């Protein structure tokens, strides 16, 4: 599996239509460029390229030519799931999909912060002090501060927050990266 669809609210869940209903049959290759296509025990996971933002699909019944229906869990991510489904529906019928739901994918700030968090956590777990981490991350002024100045410095606060947030992610909060806020 490429991702856990139950944790990724932008995933469109597709399954066979109930008896007596009709639905669109999907040929994933007809949707355009596929960024990923992986079959698993739970179905087929597909990422479709789109200039406005990719589409993530989970075909629970990947039988070719079978009409499909969308499954939308009534959870706290319902609105995001509906927005993703509407984007995919527009794409499926030859229209512009439109922008991805707000908050997906990660912002440029979060993308830039994640490697810093990883580096800071690695250093801290390796026994480095917060001051040593600050210097390693390019806060060279930290090496020249007195103990009192260091305690009140922005560099110390920055490094402390990085380590704190990285530790939380290591302990399970990484799943929040898949949630839209």
Give a verbal description of the structure.
The two termini are 24 Å apart. β3 and β4 (43-48) form a beta hairpin. Helix content is 34%, strand content 17%. α3 (130-136) packs across α5 (154-170). It is built from 5 helices and 6 strands. With 181 residues, it is α+β, with helices and mostly antiparallel strands. The model has no long low-confidence stretch (mean pLDDT 88). The protein folds into 2 domains: 11-92, no CATH class; 108-178, no CATH class. A 6-stranded mixed beta sheet has the order 2-6-1-5-4-3.
- Any low-confidence stretches, pLDDT <50, length ≥5? none
* H/E element order: EEEEEEHHHHH
Q: Figure out the total of helices.
A: 5
Largest sheet: 6 strands, mixed
Please estimate the helix content: 25-40%
Strand order of the largest sheet: 2-6-1-5-4-3
Average pLDDT rating: 88
Based on secondary structure, the structural category is alpha+beta
Number of strands: 6
Structurally, how many domains make up the residues?
2
- Shape type: elongated
**Rg on CA atoms, Å:** 22 Å
Beta content comes to 15-25%
* Beginning-to-end CA distance, first to last residue: 24 Å
